Amino acid sequence: MRISTPTRRALLGLALSVCSLTALAQTPAVFRLGIAPHTSARVILEMYQPLRAHLEKALGVPVEVVTAPDFTEFARRMLHQEYDIAVTTGHQARLAQTDADYVPLLTYSADFRAVALVAGNSKFKTAKDLVGKPVLGLSPTSLVTLWGQHWMKQNGNPDTLRYVSASDSVARLVLSGEAVAGFTSLANYQSLSRELQAQMRFLVISDPLAGRVYMLNKRQAARREQIDAALQTFALSAEGKSYFEKFKLEGYRKLKPKELEAMEPYAREVRTSLQ
């Protein structure tokens, strides 16, 4: 039977469509490692490159490190299920757990603390000394900002913080005189150059808080054991040990009982800000 030219074209188009769909189905999905914007995107990409490469090899799929412009947008994207693993501080981790069914995997062994930085020669010693003066935070929904806002109010300063995008900006703006103090994490302070650190002092240091927690998206639940194993082998690798040492993170650990539950008051504030 002779097939007409239009029919041949239709069959050819159908075959090409089937081939394209088959190739698309065989293409591994990109695994998205979402990192809360605790510092600049450039630093985050550099910082998590060793883990990205290790996960890509261990999981056998392309791995992409992504972040967001600020903590509020990161929380919004996290709740919209945009990350396969979200690495964020305890209050947003709690929000991911309760509002989006993410599962906690682990956190860093080093204590996570919020600190208020002032210039080394600053005359300011208390929260009341800062009344009416510019004080910086990272964003309205970052843990260090929320903790700092609470600390100020509890100590007689009702002012609202001003927000910047990265922890190194906090230090530089304080030293330049554009702000009198700024809140950041102890880990981010320790990542500053020795020159910057030497020019600053702590106005206050918080008690330990739930730090950066690795939260697994529910769609990856079937691969949890594989992902857990990949993180543990990274921790034991030369690249992992170098990473922990460089950023003073000390390694990974499992979360303590009720550790995320204790962050619910801060999680509630993030939830309210997103409504």
From TrEMBL:
The keyword Cytoplasm does not apply. The keyword Signal applies. Residues 1-25 form the signal peptide. Keywords: Signal. PANTHER family: ALIPHATIC SULFONATES-BINDING PROTEIN-RELATED, SOLUTE-BINDING PROTEIN FAMILY 3_N-TERMINAL DOMAIN-CONTAINING PROTEIN. This is Phosphate ABC transporter substrate-binding protein. It comes from Rhodoferax lacus.
